[in-house]
Amino acid sequence: MSEKGVAQFWRKIKAIYTIQGDHCTTCDTYYFPPRVVCPKCRRKGQLEKYTFKGLGEIHTFAIVRQAPDTFKRQIPYIVAQVELDEGARLTAQIVNCDIEDVHIGMRVRSCFRRITQYGESGIIVYGYKFEPTMRVTGHE
Amino acid sequence: MVGIIGYGVYIPRYRIKTENIAAVWGEDGEKMAKALGVFEKSVPGPDEDVATIGVEAARNAVKRAQIDPTDIGAIYVGSESHPYAVKPTGTIVAEAIGCSPHMTCADFEFACKAGTAAIQACMGLVKSNMIEVGLAIGSDTAQGRPGDALEYSAAAGGVAILVGNKNVIATIEHTSSFTTDTPDFWRREGQAFPSHGARFTGEPAYFRHVGEGARALFKKTNTTVDDYDYFVFHSPNGKFPIAMGKQLGVPREKLEDSLVVRQIGNTYSGSAMMGLANVLDIADPGSKIFMVAYGSGAGSDSFAIRVEDEIVKRRGEVPTVQDYIERKTYVNYATYAKYRKKIKALV
Fold first, then answer.
1. What does each C-alpha distance from B89 to A12, A126, B124, B310 come to in angstroms?
2. How is domain B173-306 classified at the CATH fold level?
3. Nearest Cα residue to B165 out of B210, B130, B117
4. Nearest residue, CB atoms, A114 vs list B47, B63, B329
5. What is the CATH number of domain B3-169+312-323?
6. Is it true that B3-169+312-323 and B173-306 share their CATH fold?
7. Rounded distance, CA A135 to CA B6, Å?
8. What is the ipTM of this complex?
9. What's this model's pTM, rounded to 2 decimal places?
10. Which of B9, B11, B42, B47 best probes binding to A when mutated, by most A CB atoms within 10 angstroms?
11. Tens digits of per-residue pLDDT, B244-295?
12. Are the C-beta atoms of A93 and A58 separated by less than 8 Å?
């Protein structure tokens, strides 16, 4: 595949590899993905880069059984809205968890996974997914 | 003195039993598992590769060492299954652990010993004061041709070792290597699976290089088997390291803790380093470890390591090798074939 989309992905690398967003010091709100201005404070807002701790809980979820071709190997899989401990909410796949075990309120932590690839000869997109907290994630 | 200031491991969640693989190819599973000394092996998930495994191991290592990732001046990732033929895995790891951009980075390849070659390179840079801390990673999602003997052992996992000279948890007292051109195992450009010289992989390859490498380090350090508490040999299966131990006169109990290959298979570039990590998880301060990594092609890297008091303070926060070994979900051969892209119809 050609270079199409490479720049777009490259701009997001910091954000999606390490879950880096913003913190508005004026209203003490955390944002992900990164914002250009604080949507609440507008020009009074003061945004600082912030790397989230990567811990949170499942706000809601869905089980995907009909997937795009590039995700077919993973069916059935879980996609959830994760509310991070700092307050921001994001959508991500939940891995290392069987579909019968996932539940609202489940504690999760971010892990690093392959998201997709631009065909067999294109770039590989990496980023965050989430997994249940457990002994091997350094939590009990 | 230069040594290990932190280490971390990662083993994927999935396992397949030797008997499940054997059943597909008409072999006696129980006999096969016993003969190889491999009872089950780790299988990477469909979204895991050398980069993702390397990142998880590296994050564990940084957490254990309690360092600022920007102190890392070099990242070398050793693997024979890098996701890209051209584009360093280390760049992905560096960005994901937050130590880019002021550092040097390259990918290493030397079959199963690329990770220990990376440790030696980091030691050189630290000793010469070119960098403060170096990160050496051995990570693999090893390939085995369906039906081939290697399919029973080719596994996935990674180990990250931070090399530095402050707050050392295990001092690397000496290292030496033994390298020749011995074509026992190879993979040509563009080939999906490696080829090997079958029985040739034993005597002139593994046993000669590991044996000579070990004897050379004994000589260099003026030590004998009795001076060490633990021995770690590269483990392509559970049989070779035990046979090597017998040849060198190593008591079985000094080898036992390194034999993680039985439960997870051969993690290739992570193999000897995984055995070392399992020993570091339990060894008392003052213990001495003798490790020999082997890479086909062929060469061996030998290390004499002394465990320091500092190690005790660095335990508990970071998952151990045993934590990862115990976290497992079995898959059948069909699921394994799907995850490992042995089913080609899917993209």
1. 18, 12, 21, 31
2. Peroxisomal Thiolase; Chain A, domain 1 (3.40.47)
3. B130
4. B47
5. 3.40.47.10
6. yes
7. 19
8. 0.95
9. 0.97
10. B47
11. 999 999 999 999 999 999 999 999 999 999 999 999 999 999 999 999 999 9
12. no
